[in-house]
Amino acid sequence: MSVHFSFLSQTVLGCTIWLFLCGLSTHSHAQISSQKQRQPFIVDGQKQDWEAPLTFDEKSGFRLGISHDDDRIHFSILIQDPQLQEQILLTGMTLWIRPKGQPAHVFGLRFPIGLSRSDQPKDPGELAMILREFQQDRYKRLAELSGLEILSGKRDTIWGDNLNPVGIRTMAGLDAPGNMIYEASIPLKAIPGMIDESATYFVPFSLKIESGSLGRPKSLHGDDSRGISGGALSNPQQQTSGKNMWDQLDFYAEYAKERVWKVKKVVPGG
What we know:
By secondary structure, the chain is of the alpha+beta class. It has 5 helices and 13 strands. The protein has one domain (2-268). The protein is 22% helix and 30% strand. The longest helix has 21 residues, at 2-22.
């Protein structure tokens, strides 16, 4: 019984520390105006033809611009932080759009899709190896991004890129200084409740941008010998080598913090 209690205590302690390290980086912004697009907007992962100003949220690291024309709403998101760029490539990013009067999570656009949970790194060593691969040719990896998911409800995938009947366009790229440029163009008719005959262009909506996040490293479950410092969290008697166990856990946890930015109201501007 004492052995079982000891194992349970270590697991609870490890999970508690993990939740403390990960946290949740969430911030909200009162209102952003969408600017009328004066020239055709080309979704190419570059910013030469983008016209609307970008609003920066320091806490989440997203820099956002929104524009529209008669039929579409356009998004441009600039991400300067290399770590956040890597996290998005690893775990994906979702835009949640909620027109006024509609339920939460009525429409979500997930791009990039990111790695599935089963393919995500399970420990700091595996994470470091994947990050080295990303860093070797980030331009190529962004150019090769394909596929998107349309979500309704928190997790339900309605259809993916092969079933894109309404023509949503997405692309990501890097500019010369190394900023990630995310671009998306969504037909207004694709978003439930977005078009109202009494509204100008579209009804006001709330927006939430959220990155994905890594799950707990397997070592916290005590079922993987490859875990942090060779499973040291589940076996406190084991000697650590190289980087300190807690430094490794903190390194892994940085990529497990979900970055969220909520814009309470987006309204059409001139």
